[in-house]
Amino acid sequence: MHSEDMDRIVNEYTLPASGPMTTSSIPSSGAPALPLDAYDRRFYGGMAVLIAMIVFVGFSPSFYLAPAFHRATPPPLRIVHGVMFSSWIVLFAVQTALITTGRVRWHMRLGIAGAVLAAGMVGIGSVVAVLAARAGHAAPGIDPLVFMAVPLFDMVVFTALVASAVYLRRRPQTHKRLMLLATASLVGAAAARLPLSYHIAGVPLFYAFGVVDALILMGVLYDVVTRHRVHPAYVWGGLLIVVSEPLRLAVGGTQLWRAFARFLIGL
Hints:
- This protein is mostly helical.
- The protein has one domain (about 35-265).
- It is built from twelve helices and no strands.
- It has helices at about 5-15, 35-65, 75-100, 105-135, 145, 150-165, 170-185, 190, 195-200, 205-225, 230-250, 255-265.
């Protein structure tokens, strides 16, 4: 990236309160209004913390705190998978913190490592999905061959969102929304493991979809409140995630998919 491009992006992230990006503010009763970029930093920082909490709680019994829950140590490949996907959640929180503290140049440099990590995640995530189907693992009541479409579609959606975010990295308002959507799209696996997924929904898969959709809705509502419109990144990126949820189950139930799934698992 040319130095003038980096300077322009840094300036867009760090405009003063009188700048064109930050003149809007949210009124609050009895308290002075903050610049819009200050609210953005609080919102995206809060979303990073919320996502990290969901992932930690969801995977604590089977991964993070497995010994405390008397669970067996995961096999090496799943440990690598867990470390890589956990690293993405941590990286998202760190990147958000760097923007919040004005360290935009560090954020942009660390983004290179994020792109490499994302590519590795897609590879290992796809392998783990195939091996899980081969071992007969699936959400309760769903055929493993059908269920394999769920994590594989996750990788397709994640790839599309991250690739779009990287391509549009010179447009900070679009970039940060796409990165939030990409990270939120991964939360379903953790949400399906939350205790509430069994006690409220009864079907963890659909509860997982609901949690992901709720995260998307929070971003949409934030835009409506702060900008009185929804950013196109949330419209198209959010639709990609939401439409893919029933689509992956519909595709997974077709004979064509079953033949493809059997080919992948070597049956």
